Amino acid sequence: MSEPIAKTQPIDAGAQTVRPAAPDPGSARTDRRIGDLLKGTYTLERLLGAGGMGSVYLAQHALIRKKVAIKILAPEYALKPELKERFLREARAAAAIDHDGVIEIHDFGETADGAAFFVMEYLEGEDLAAVIQREAPLPWPRARGIAVQICRALQAAHDRGIVHRDMKPGNCFRLDRDGRDVVKVLDFGIAKLQNPDEGVGQALTRTGMIFGTPEYMSPEQAQGLHHDHRVDIYAVGVILFELLTGKPPFIADTFMGLLNKHMFDAPPRPRDVAPRADIPAAAEAVVLKALQKDPDLRFQTMDELAAALAAVDAGVAPEIVPEPLKAKPARGAPMQFRSADAPPRPTLPETTAPAFPAPFAPPRRRWNLALVAGLAGAAVAAGALVLFTQQDPSDSAEETGPKEHAPVTSSPELLPLPPPAPAPPSPPPAPTCSRCRRRR
Q: 215 and 248 in contact (C-beta within 8 Å)?
């Protein structure tokens, strides 16, 4: 899936401080920031990468000559307070987590033109997305070692009340230390703070907003529901699935297609996806438990997940609880619409649907009462005329026997007409006097 589809927010992949394999020789001439001195301390040397919210530069400390990476907010966001606060919150969140598995933040400030920036440790290596693309499926011992490091780093974040919410291979950076994998977690740009405090910053998101990358998004995130640290457990389950098989559990052509699969589809078994990968049965159980739809059925902490990973070699497998899957909405099913204060109406048969749903119903016509009464009288008279013309005056039960049609009075739809009302008597002539007669 292409990157624009895979993101719901401008999540910055440029937080990775990887050294480019082939630096652009013209980048120093075209980037106006190259050579800038920030805070009188850091000299920008070259561009390392650019993401949705900013760019990452290789820089050098002017006094101690130490290399660092500096992430600078994009100019178009510099005047937007909410985005600027979210950018700086990434630095505060990462700095608040004191763990070797989380990228280290050294400093922050503003450029001469008012763009916020923060300084972080410079890492030489590659992200897990590159490792998966090149080498997956990974052998179980190596995949387990990487996953356990991620669990330890995220447990440290959760202990500080910080939920990452965008865990994916691209936000896990791999370093090679004497042939050993060392993993650091990056990019806390959309982290959720469960217990905000002044040292970290206030939460900027709310229930109903969708954040993250759909391939790694938990069902509750996909629905915009309230969520907690267990969304990170689900995402690590997806990463582990991908490390062991080379593929994510769910694949779709569209953003919404992926969200639907996370909400409604059961994940495949890793050993069915990669039958030659020699995945232990207990490891498969760990992955599937982390991917349970109901967060109450997953591992409840990252420490629990790490312990389950360590127990796989002993053949200890966690229990996977069967759970009913939510049904997808039926396509083509009839729908009814009503206002919030209207009582519910009976459900229509499956083969029918209202011609005019309530929000689009035609306006009611206002009839004149006199006109209604006149039309009703005309209808009654027309009915009487029809009955009169159809009834043969010579018909009688004694002379002709029963007729093929039922008597009029037996029809449930037609009733006998009432007898005509007697005509009112003529008023008596008004009395006249003799004088009036003589005058005429």
A: yes
Return the higher-pLDDT residue of 419 and 216.
Answer: 216
209: tokens are 């907003």
Query: Are residues 108 and 70 both part of a single domain?
Result: yes
HEC-encoded secondary structure of 365-423:
CCCCHHHHHHHHHHHHHHHHHHHHHHCCCCCCHHHHCCCCCCCHHHCCCCCCCCCCCCC
Task: For residue 184, list its beta bridge partners.
Answer: 173
Single-letter code of the amino acid located at 229:
H
The predicted structure's pLDDT at residue 399:
41
**Cα(175)–Cα(104) distance, integer angstroms:** 14
Active-site annotation, residues: 166
Residue at token pair 């209604």:
372
Q: How many CB atoms lie within 10 A of CB 370?
A: 8
Nearest to 97 by CA among 193, 237, 232: 193
94 with 145, same domain?
no
Looking at residue 107, which CATH number applies to its domain? 3.30.200.20
Tokens of 125: 């290596």
Strands in 279-378 per DSSP E = none
Q: CATH number of the domain that 268 lies in? A: 1.10.510.10
Closest by CA to 301, choosing from 82, 190, 79, 152, is 152
Is the pLDDT assigned to residue 63 strictly greater than 80?
A: yes
CA distances from 304 to 52, 203, 220, 286 (A): 34, 27, 21, 10
Largest separation between any pair of C-alpha atoms in the chain = 144
Q: Compute the mean pLDDT over every residue in the chain, rounded to the nearest whole number.
A: 75
Quote the domain boundaries for residue 63. 13-121
Residues 175 and 70 in one domain: no
For residue 70, what are the contacts with CB-CB under 8 A and spacing of at least 6? 38, 42, 44, 56, 57, 59, 117, 118, 119, 120
Whether residue 287 is found in the same domain as residue 146: yes
Q: Quick check: 241 and 269 in contact, CB under 8 A?
A: no
Is 50 in a helix, a strand, or coil?
A: strand
